[in-house]
């Protein structure tokens, strides 16, 4: 399949809307993950075990404990994001994956599913059932989620002060690449960066001056920089998630009798170009 074959007309309005929501929800999870790194360094929080796993847990807890139903529901798309990333690799884990500071993509996805099950098994039952998540594993998730939630909230409680406000500087930089600008517009319209400010801007004893920035980075990434005290979300990451959904919808739309060559999904990197990533277009 050529990269020019994927046009906006190939997808329904519902699929485009679903793809945009997928991009936004994955950005939210990633931003809460990076805000976990921010809290660890700014508040001097102790971390037992791998910090990446710990802040994945915090990101899950902050979304699942939110009174905002959209943030709670975002967990499903975020888990699907890691499942799709794992499937896109195709060849399975490489040696570098075992060396990396993060867990394996599929492990991260199932850890999030366990958090969902432990937090509200009824709310997420349809999603979890679709994964054939074992009943015996679900029974363990309630206790695991409670430990994660109580551990993080216990740590954060020591740094809470209802009288305090922290100044967050939120910036959506213009995209250097015109193909990425629609992603910048989508994220800004959804106010994804503001979710961090809304969560930690009041009631936490965090020193003023935290920057939260979305911009073109030249790589698919997001990170916390302790030196500049800045959380950065890269527009390329949004393009990457869009490409994952392009692959997913393309495989769904493929005729049942199509040849393997016709329906085989390209890598997200190959799809993330001006001709193929059409989920960035508004309906």
Short description, anyone?
This protein is an alpha/beta fold and 283 residues long. The chain contains twelve helices and six strands. The strands form two sheets. It has a four-stranded mixed β-sheet with strand order 2-4-6-5.
Report on this structure.
The protein is of the alpha/beta class and 283 residues long. The chain folds into two domains: 1-42 and 166-283, no CATH class; 46-158, no CATH class. The chain is 56% helix and 10% strand. The protein has helices at residues 13-43, 51-64, 69-89, 95-99, 105-120, 125-129, 135-157, 181-190, 194-200, 235-253, 260-263, 268-271, and strands at 160-165, 168-172, 202-204, 210-215, 222-225, 230-234. The strands form two sheets. The protein has a four-stranded mixed sheet. It has a two-stranded antiparallel sheet with strand order 1-3. Helix 1 runs antiparallel to helix 10 (235-253) and helix 2 (51-64) runs parallel beside helix 5. 38% of the residues are buried. Residues 1-6, 97-102 and 256-283 have low confidence and may be disordered.
- Averaging pLDDT over every residue, what do you get? 84
Computed structural class: alpha/beta
What is the β-strand count? 6
Identify low-pLDDT runs. 1-6, 97-102, 256-283
Shape: globular
Give the proportion of residues in helices: 55-70%
Tell me the strand percentage band: 5-15%
Order of strands across the biggest sheet?
2-4-6-5
Largest sheet: 4 strands, mixed
Order of helices and strands: HHHHHHHEEHHEEEEHHH
Radius of gyration (Å) = 19 Å
Number of helices: 12
**Please, how many domains?**
2
Query: How far do the termini sit from each other?
Result: 24 Å
């Amino acid at each position: 399949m050529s990269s020019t074959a994927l046009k906006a007309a190939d997808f329904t309005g519902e699929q485009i809307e679903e793809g945009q929501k997928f991009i936004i929800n994955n950005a939210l999870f990633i931003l809460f993950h990076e805000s976990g790194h921010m809290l660890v360094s700014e508040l001097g929080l102790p971390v037992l075990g791998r910090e990446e796993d710990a802040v994945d847990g915090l990101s899950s807890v902050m979304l699942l404990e939110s009174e905002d139903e959209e943030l709670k529901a975002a967990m499903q798309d975020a888990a699907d994001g890691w499942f799709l990333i794992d499937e896109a690799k195709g060849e399975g884990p490489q040696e570098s994956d075992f060396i990396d500071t993060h867990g394996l993509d599929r492990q991260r996805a199932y850890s999030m599913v366990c958090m969902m099950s432990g937090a509200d098994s009824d709310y997420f039952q349809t999603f979890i059932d679709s994964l054939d998540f074992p009943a015996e594993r679900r029974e363990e998730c309630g206790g695991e989620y409670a430990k994660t939630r109580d551990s993080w909230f216990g740590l954060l409680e020591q740094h809470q002060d209802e009288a305090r406000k922290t100044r967050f500087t939120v910036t959506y930089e213009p995209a250097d690449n015109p193909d990425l600008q629609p992603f910048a517009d989508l994220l800004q319209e959804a106010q994804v960066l503001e979710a961090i400010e809304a969560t930690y801007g009041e009631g936490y004893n965090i020193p003023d001056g935290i920057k939260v920035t979305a911009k073109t980075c030249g790589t698919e990434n997001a990170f916390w920089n302790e030196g500049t005290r800045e959380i950065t979300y890269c527009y390329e990451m949004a393009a990457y998630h869009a490409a994952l959904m392009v692959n997913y919808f393309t495989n769904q739309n493929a005729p049942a009798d199509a040849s393997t060559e016709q329906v085989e999904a390209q890598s997200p990197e190959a799809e993330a170009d001006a001709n193929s990533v059409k989920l960035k277009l508004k309906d």
